[in-house]
Write a structure and sequence with these properties.
Blueprint: H1 34-38, H2 40-57, H3 70-85, E1 95-100, E2 103-106, E3 111-114, H4 117-120, H5 129-138, E4 145-146, H6 153-166, E5 172-178, H7 181-195, E6 201-205, H8 214-219, E7 234-238, H9 247-263, E8 268-273, H10 287-300, E9 304-308, H11 320-323, E10 332-335, E11 342-347, E12 363-364, H12 365-380, H13 389-407, E13 415-416, E14 422-423, E15 427-430, E16 433-436, H14 443-456, E17 458-459, E18 461-463, E19 469-472, H15 483-498
Parallel strand pairs: 3-17, 6-7, 6-8, 8-9, 9-10
Antiparallel strand pairs: 1-2, 2-3, 4-12, 5-11, 10-11, 13-14, 15-16, 16-19, 18-19
Length: 499
């Protein structure tokens, strides 16, 4: 177990927004609960709750081990979870409901640095005062869960925000909202299939991840996720960009794409592209890789679907396609996670016929309010651009990682690649998507390291399909560059006892 960290405490004292319309999650003109949200008694109650929250958070300033009797409490909860789910959770994790920014408290009394934030969901960490305030205001609504039949203004305002941001550099015009990334991916596939007269095949990059529905597990390139599932979706996988091969990698993928398009003319409903691969290893590619593939698809009438469920909000631009100047080629875009509610966005040309897209649930009212608050803060809070907060956070990660590699080169040997090649590049990713590759990317050793990191005070996961990597998805809304000092101090100890 790690000792109490000496890192600077996470600042959770940021003042929430003023009462009234601005309290509805950033949509100041949305007619959501105008009287209740501005009611002095309600406002005073919310302020009192936030004051108590900040007082409770003051005790959470760094990582610490479990209490003396905490392990037994956690074991009981893990046993109950295993019994009801039929399988033990990946980590012995059960939160108390209290956290402070990038730090979270568990029922065993331990406090850990959250470097995975629900696999990209909790962009503003744990217990952010403005997010809590937005949720409290949302709790006054008559609707706990909104849907496509009955919804309030916040649902429309949420969709309008996303269309406005996407349309700045694309032809996106419409937005279908749902409550999970998997469901908006399902919606995107239906939109593409209807546009192409039920073309049966899908083109995707190898090592992609699409979700865990019956259809999405078949498109995603993860054999374990579709074990025992009847296969009825026909997928053609393209090699993703390999930086060691440079332009040769683009030529190879373009050759493969021509082959399948020639072999199955008019049979493809879409090419779904992760511009930065998430589960596949936080792999990045330049514009020059995607552009010829997209141009060939457009020439053959194959819609281009850009999957930003994990990248949205996390790169140096709000949409990754904007940073790569590919927005004008996007027919369909899916996004979610950090926005709390998820969305399938599409152009006017892709607008489907009535009946194709609907659902009982879109998202909870709290999700819309918290999501809008997060989106508004990201847009106006100096997060984007070459000198934005996201870019500086990524730079801080790389600086600490490079120092660790120099200090302990024995932990970071060359990483084997296909066809007998290897690379010495063990630090990767972009923006708020960061990765580190110790032990040559060996799966078993990295799995052991992840468990040691959890015990020592860092929560994260791996990514990649060989080589494997340690994945970092820090809560960029509250994470500060100096917080990486404590994280890497713990990481160094975990690597030492995993060697």
């Amino acid at each position: 177990m790690s000792p109490t960290s000496t890192a600077k405490p996470v600042d959770s004292s940021a003042s929430p927004s003023a009462a009234g319309g601005s309290s509805v999650g950033g949509a100041a003109d949305a007619p959501v609960l105008p009287s209740l949200a501005a009611n002095p008694a309600v406002r005073a109650a919310i302020d009192a709750i936030l004051k108590e929250l900040r007082a409770a958070q003051a005790t959470i300033t760094g990582a610490r081990p479990a209490s003396a009797d905490g392990a037994a409490t956690m074991a009981q909860w893990v046993s109950r979870t295993e019994a009801v789910r039929g399988r033990a959770p990946f980590y012995p994790y059960l939160g108390t409901g209290l956290g402070n920014g990038a730090l979270v408290q568990l029922v065993d009394g331990s406090v850990k640095w959250d470097m995975i934030e629900g696999i990209g969901v909790h962009m503003f960490g744990h217990g952010d005062a403005e997010m809590v305030e937005a949720a409290l205001v949302a709790s006054l609504s008559d609707l706990l869960m909104q849907g496509h039949l009955q919804f309030n203004a916040d649902s429309t305002a949420f969709a309008e925000f996303l269309v406005a941001e996407a349309s700045r550099s694309s032809a996106i015009k419409h937005c279908f909202v749902s409550n999970s990334g998997c469901m908006v991916n399902e919606a995107a596939l239906k939109v593409c299939q209807q546009k192409t007269n039920a073309a049966p095949r899908v083109i995707a990059f190898q090592d992609c991840f699409m979700g865990r529905s019956t259809t999405m597990t078949q498109i995603g390139d993860g054999p374990a996720y579709r074990q025992g599932v009847a296969l009825n979706v026909q997928v053609d996988y393209m090699p993703f960009y390999e930086p060691e091969l440079g332009s040769r990698s683009t030529e190879m993928t373009l050759w493969h794409l021509r082959q399948v398009l020639d072999r199955y003319p008019k049979h493809h409903s879409c090419f779904v592209m992760e511009l930065v691969q998430g589960e596949g290893g936080f792999n990045v590619a330049p514009r020059e890789f995607f552009l010829p593939l997209i141009e060939l698809c457009r020439d053959r009438g194959v819609p281009v679907w850009i999957d930003e469920v994990q990248t949205f909000g996390r790169t140096p631009t709000m949409f990754a396609f904007e940073g790569l100047d590919l927005g004008r080629f996007a027919d369909v875009v899916t996004m979610g996670k950090m926005s709390q509610a998820c969305a399938c966005l599409f152009t006017e040309a892709m607008n489907p016929k009535p009946g194709l897209l609907a659902g009982t649930f879109t998202a909870s009212t709290a999700a819309f309010h918290v999501g809008m608050r997060a989106l508004s803060k990201l847009k106006s809070g100096g997060f984007y651009g070459a000198q934005g907060r996201i870019a500086k956070l990524h730079e801080a990660f790389r600086t600490r990682a490079e120092a660790l590699v120099r200090k302990h080169p024995q932990w970071f040997p060359a990483v084997p690649l296909p066809f007998g090649r290897s690379t010495t590049k063990v630090i990767g990713g972009i923006g708020g998507m960061m990765r580190l590759t110790p032990f040559g990317g060996d799966k078993e050793r990295i799995s052991a390291l992840l468990k040691n990191m959890f015990e020592d005070g860092i929560i994260t996961l791996g990514c990649g399909h060989g080589p494997y990597h340690v994945r970092f998805l820090p809560p960029i809304g509250v994470m500060k560059p100096e917080h990486f000092d404590a994280v890497f101090e713990i990481l160094e100890r975990s690597l030492a006892r995993s060697s």
